[in-house]
UniProtKB/TrEMBL annotation:
UniProt xrefs under InterPro entries: COMT-like, COMT_C, COMT_dimerisation, SAM-dependent_MTases_sf, WH-like_DNA-bd_sf, WH_DNA-bd_sf
GO molecular function: O-methyltransferase activity; protein dimerization activity
Protein name in the entry: O-methyltransferase domain
Entries under PANTHER family matching the protein: O-METHYLTRANSFERASE (PTHR11746)
Active site per database record: H262 (proton acceptor)
Length: 357
């Protein structure tokens, strides 16, 4: 074997080793981001209005103790600067390091819109992390990760656990605002044609609130499980209805379903879609699905996250999955929507319209 071949092999082994080190510590980045969100660091820098030194940041942290560890925060910030979550610069005196918000950490503000902070806290909560440890068992034994971790699916877990219900619904509320900005931009006028619209599995009703604001003439219904509706806030122009989409859904000109189909396997999706078909007028009624459309070779901004979300569905959903265009076509056809149209959005999700003829 030539020397070159040996060194190429050694080089490939070394690169592989480095890649696996990074991969096996993949969780570190999420945990560091979760820590700064819990400490409200992005909010502190945002309120200050310009980059801050570590000591300025620490002085604003809520309920500091005698043991508050500036050096620990320095290490977290140093790592997140490398990851481009925060920016760094030297003060004009040259004596201090100042930390600022990057385009990423602007998405980590509490009580701001748009924000993904509640989603960071929900996805990285110990309750959501436990089912991930059951992934290999899902392969070997089949079944649902959440049930293996807790003996029940995520919706029953939320119904029994008000604290988790709130954490989950807050995360859905923030992601609904983010997605709805893209939906209203890319599809908004499409809603204007309907006299009534039902959001099936609409959570807190934030999605419908955005539609009702844009189209005050429309009858807007937010439909979800009773325990979700019980804590949903009042939104002008939106009526909340509790129920089970596997039994029936309220009647309307069209049905909206955002981030619902991906929670379920194909058989369940067909059942839900058939109930939607029952609820809309024959021939003219349609279903508007807002969900990921996977593209195996896609290299768009959100394509990688689509594949991450597919595994999130293994960990958290009851047989759910993200779908390719062909997979969407198959379930829509089975449920009585033989024609479909996909509208790409500048967002993680696309719009998949299903027509009855
Ligand atoms: C992933 S969340 C999406 C929430 C919202 N559409 C959004 O995008 O923010 C799925 C929603 O489906 C609701 N859901 C689950 N099972 C349901 C059922 N059988 N009937 C009605 N809603 C259900 C959940 O309570 C939850 O609010």
């Amino acid at each position: 074997m030539g020397e070159n071949v040996v060194s190429e092999k050694a080089d490939a082994m070394l690169k592989g080793q480095a890649e696996i080190w990074e991969t096996l510590f993949g969780f570190v980045e999420s945990m560091a981001v979760k820590a700064v969100v819990e400490l409200h660091i992005p909010d502190i820098i945002h309120s200050h209005g310009s980059p801050m030194s570590l000591f300025q940041i620490i002085s604003k942290i809520d309920s500091p103790t005698d043991e508050t560890d500036t050096k620990c925060l320095a290490r977290i910030m140093r790592f997140l600067v490398r990851k481009k979550i925060f920016t760094v610069q030297t003060s004009s005196s040259g004596a201090e390091t100042l930390y600022g918000l990057s385009r990423s950490s602007k998405w980590l503000l509490h009580d701001a819109e748009p924000s993904l902070a509640p989603m960071v806290l929900m996805q990285n909560h110990p309750w959501q992390l436990a089912p991930w440890h059951c992934l290999s068992r899902c392969v070997k034994e089949g079944g649902v990760a959440y049930e293996k971790a807790y003996g029940c699916g995520i919706w029953d877990f939320a119904a029994k656990n008000p604290e988790f219900n709130k954490i989950f619904n807050d995360a859905m509320t923030c992601t609904a605002s983010v997605a709805m900005e893209a939906v209203m931009g890319g599809y908004g006028e499409g809603f204007g044609r309907f006299g009534s619209l039902v959001d099936v599995g609409g959570g807190n009703g934030n999605t419908m609130a955005a539609v009702a604001r844009a189209f005050p003439h429309m009858k807007c219904v937010n439909f979800d499980l009773p325990h979700v509706i019980a804590t949903a806030p009042v939104h002008e122009g939106v009526s909340h209805v509790g129920g089970d989409m596997f039994v029936s859904v309220p009647k309307a000109d069209a049905i909206l379903m955002k981030w619902v189909m991906h929670d379920w396997n194909d058989e369940d999706c067909v059942k839900i879609l058939r109930n939607c078909r029952e609820a809309v007028p024959e021939k003219t009624g349609k279903v508007i699905i807002v969900d990921v459309v996977l593209e195996q070779e896609g290299n768009g901004l959100f394509d990688e996250t689509g594949f991450l979300m597919d595994l999130v569905m293994v960990a958290h959903a009851s047989g759910g999955r993200e779908r390719t265009e062909l997979e969407w076509k198959i379930i829509l056809e089975k449920a009585g929507f033989p024609r479909y149209n996909i509208i790409k959005l500048p967002a993680l999700q696309s719009i998949i319209e299903g027509f009855q003829e």
